[in-house]
Amino acid sequence: MTQIGFASQEEWSTVYEVMLLTRADIQHVVSVAQTDSLTDADMHEIARLVKEAIEEAGIWEELPYIVRFVLQQKESPNGKEPLW
Question: Does the reported pTM lie above 0.85?
Answer without folding.
Answer: no
